[in-house]
Inverse folding.
């Protein structure tokens, strides 16, 4: 892709990460950014990521080939009105919001359908702001595109190429389907995680025993409840119908589970967990997509100096390469010792054999 100009309205975590990825992968790209946070703009300038910083939305954006709307969704109306008079007919407008219906309707009302391709990178972080942006954020992540029907196919193809260039996997969906899908796999899970945290908070004793002993399983499933309340408030207000529709289905499923639980139907309980496990494991068995199989073993070790070094040295002595190593600080479900990740299945198998020969207690887990 030849040299071109990209503009950013908002340079936070996502906008900043796109800018950094473009700067790394396509250093000839000219990047212009507007943000109300002047410190973020100055940092991006100092790093050489952007070439122009703007204190207001103005004529400088006329030269953009791509213009990314990365400010909070609630600001899109005002920003689009300010931008409209400066837009070249050749500029491709895009956004990064996780709900698409609202922005598509705004674009249609402004008569900009011929140049709008909605975008939603399926990635993120509990952290926010340009200071936490990183070029690698999109690697192997799905990047959903919702082009308006009036956009020429060659421009959609060019944008797909740009998405691939920053390391992401483009996937085109109608915006209505996008909002239903993300309600199921992203929005409702956040509601459920927050509701589980609230349940424990309200059911806990005065001494806070539940909070004190909350271990791996609970922390894993509720991690996303640490996300921005403001962002999730806006998502719930803009994708209400889809979230509510799926919540109805989820409540029905919970009631069905409660019935087999109360009736102690052993076979039904087993099938419930078996089918969920098998379907979940099919996510990481797929040949494509961002969720890949990990080769991990967990080793119980004594809590004394040198324990980790002894294992690392033992594996190194057998020419076994370690991809990652870390301590799990709980022992729920055989976790909570030393978690070792390998690059391939053969290395994990060999490591397991070596450690068992030295009488270590091993737990294998395919994530």
């Amino acid at each position: 892709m030849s040299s071109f100009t990209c503009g950013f309205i908002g340079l936070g975590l996502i906008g900043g990460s796109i800018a950094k990825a473009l700067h790394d992968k396509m250093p000839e790209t000219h990047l212009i950014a507007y943000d109300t946070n002047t410190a973020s703009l100055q940092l991006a300038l100092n790093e050489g990521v952007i070439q122009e910083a703007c204190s207001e939305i103005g004529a400088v954006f006329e030269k953009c080939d791509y213009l990314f709307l990365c400010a909070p969704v609630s600001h899109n109306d005002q920003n689009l009105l300010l931008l409209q008079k400066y837009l070249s007919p050749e500029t491709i407008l895009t956004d990064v919001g996780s709900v698409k219906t609202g922005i598509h309707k705004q674009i249609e009302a402004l008569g900009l359908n011929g140049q709008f391709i909605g975008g939603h990178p399926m990635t993120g972080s509990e952290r926010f702001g340009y200071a936490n942006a990183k070029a690698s954020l999109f690697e192997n992540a799905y990047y959903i595109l919702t082009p308006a029907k009036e956009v020429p196919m060659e421009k959609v193809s060019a944008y797909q190429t740009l998405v691939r260039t920053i390391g992401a996997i483009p996937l085109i969906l109608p915006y209505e389907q996008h909002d239903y899908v993300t309600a199921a796999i992203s929005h409702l899970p956040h509601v459920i995680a927050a509701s589980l945290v609230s349940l424990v908070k309200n059911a806990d004793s005065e001494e806070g025993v539940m909070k004190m002993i909350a271990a791996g399983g609970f922390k894993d499933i509720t991690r996303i409840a640490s996300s921005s309340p403001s962002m999730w408030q806006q998502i719930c207000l803009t994708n209400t119908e889809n979230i509510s529709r799926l919540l109805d289905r989820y409540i029905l499923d919970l009631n069905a589970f409660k019935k087999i639980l109360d009736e102690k139907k052993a076979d039904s309980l087993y099938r419930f967990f078996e089918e969920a496990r098998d379907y979940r494991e099919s996510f990481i068995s797929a040949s494509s997509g961002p969720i890949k199989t990990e080769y991990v073993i967990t080793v119980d070790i004594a809590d004394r100096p040198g324990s980790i070094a002894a294992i690392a040295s033992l594996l190194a002595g057998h020419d076994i390469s370690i991809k990652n190593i870390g301590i799990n600080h709980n022992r729920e479900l055989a976790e909570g010792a030393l978690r070792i990740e390998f690059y391939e299945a053969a290395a994990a198998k060999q490591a397991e054999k070596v450690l068992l020969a030295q009488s270590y207690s091993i737990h294998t887990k395919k994530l």
